Amino acid sequence: MKPAKFDYYCPKTVDEALSLLEEIGFDGKIIAGGQSLVPIMNMRLATPECLIDINQLNDLQFIELDGSKMKIGALTRQAEIEMSDAVRKHLGLLSEAVPYIGHVQTRNRGTFGGSLVHADPSAEIPLSLMTLGGTLHIASKDEVREVNVEDFFVTYLTTDIMPNELLTEIHIPLPEGRVGYSFHEISRRHGDFALVAAACQLSIDSQDRISKVRLVLGGVDAVPLLITEASELMEGEYLSASLLNKIADIVDEVVNPESDLHATADYRRHLAKKLAVRTVKTAYERARGENNECS
Amino acid sequence: MSVHEIEVTINGKKYREQVESRMLLSDFLRETCGLTGTHVGCEHGVCGACTIHLNGSAVRSCLIFAIQVDGQEITTVEGLTKDGELTLLQRNFIECHGLQCGFCTPGILMSTTDYLQKNPNPTLQEIKEMLSGHLCRCTGYEGIIKAIQKTIDESNLNYEAERR
Ligand SMILES: Cc1cc2nc3c(=O)[nH]c(=O)nc-3n(C[C@@H](O)[C@H](O)[C@H](O)COP(=O)(O)OP(=O)(O)OC[C@H]3O[C@@H](n4cnc5c(N)ncnc54)[C@H](O)[C@@H]3O)c2cc1C
């Protein structure tokens, strides 16, 4: 299958890209790794009039430690994140989740920012960022604005970004203290999109009480679902079997999965409960230093 | 704005050609350059038959537009051999029956070559994960996995022999 005709622009600087975006507006589409956009164009589900290729914007390709946060350029390839020692050391959740994205051949090309803007509800990077927290830096010709990850995802394949805007970088706070994280997903085959995915990051105090926790589920709603009720329940508590049961009950109540060719809504709900419990448990064990899979 | 001139280096040779912006790199390689070793299967990045190396990394050529590779370096399956000699991996594909119809083979050779350069000692599980980016309908992957494992073993032997 072949894409429809389009005009092609390849800006060399961010400023040039922003001017083009301003000029072209709704007729244009940014292409980063192309691993989601090009299949859609090949199937003619999208027929943009202009493509603005950001692959020459080397300024948007970096992983940088800056005090208490990590800065990642939007154009950073997923494979670079997977290989990065700094990411493994400070944001282990990302190193654990990224290898589940498609195949290494797609991660070599697909970008961090492209996955966020594409906003597939079961994609690994949106889920991980929602768990880690952080801000997205979005530039247009006139301003740069910062959006918290909680406000970024609007619905299926839709984010807070406008046609004249470019995602430039993402800032993620480094977790501090006794921290544990965990990522799990169930897919039909390695490399397929997750039926359901779950990620958790938590910190515990000197008595092993949970002081801060974020549990996020993917594939169960239109956006990565932050289970705030579970955080409220867990904070200040020790992890116990009864607490885990309560978390499963909350998940049962708040998720909103759909049925499709691959799985029924009921099965997804079942997976959501199981994976939520499993990720929280693993994260807690790791925070206590009991699960030495974690560095 | 929809027809452009590009210059790319493919298998060490320079090509200067006119392309329409919507031309996929896979079609450019096959139809414009006559390099039909790169196969086209699903055209949405799943089957892996069109995998090539772009600046040294394995990628799908059906998910890149030819215009995007202006000034860059590409290797296709035709570029793997050195002076007409098959590589160790290619020879082991023959030896271990790593192919039947051969349609998926060029893509798998390209992915594996890149992968082994970056990860010289993968586990069986890692090999399988790398191969999950390719669909082969004939062999059930058994011969392919054997060919890859044999290549790893023999490269390590060579490496040790060189050190001695
Ligand atoms: C076979 C296959 C399997 C896959 N499996 C998975 C999977 O399991 N999990 C998963 O998460 N993904 C999967 N993907 C998709 C993933 O590989 C993509 O890389 C990713 O979703 C999109 O990133 P990209 O850089 O390729 O973006 P593109 O495809 O180039 O762009 C995606 C969208 O984002 C916009 N965009 C990109 N960058 C910016 C920016 N900086 N600012 C503003 N807008 C921007 C584009 O305009 C477009 O709308 C798979 C892809 C393939 C081909």
UniProtKB/TrEMBL annotation, chain A:
The keyword Oxidoreductase applies. It comes from the Bacteria. Keywords: FAD, Flavoprotein, Oxidoreductase. One of its GO terms (molecular function) is oxidoreductase activity. Residues 1-177 form the FAD-binding PCMH-type domain. This is Molybdopterin dehydrogenase FAD-binding protein.
UniProtKB/TrEMBL annotation, chain B:
Residues 4-80 form the 2Fe-2S ferredoxin-type domain. CDD domains: fer2 (cd00207). It comes from Parageobacillus genomosp. 1. Signal peptide: none annotated. Pathway: Alkaloid degradation; nicotine degradation. Keywords: 2Fe-2S, Iron, Iron-sulfur, Metal-binding, Oxidoreductase. This is (2Fe-2S)-binding domain-containing protein. InterPro entries: 2Fe-2S-bd, 2Fe-2S-bd_dom_sf, 2Fe-2S_ferredoxin-like_sf, 2Fe-2S_ferredoxin-type, 2Fe2S_fd_BS, Beta-grasp_dom_sf, Diverse_Oxidoreductases. Coiled coil: none annotated. GO terms for molecular function: 2 iron, 2 sulfur cluster binding; metal ion binding; oxidoreductase activity.
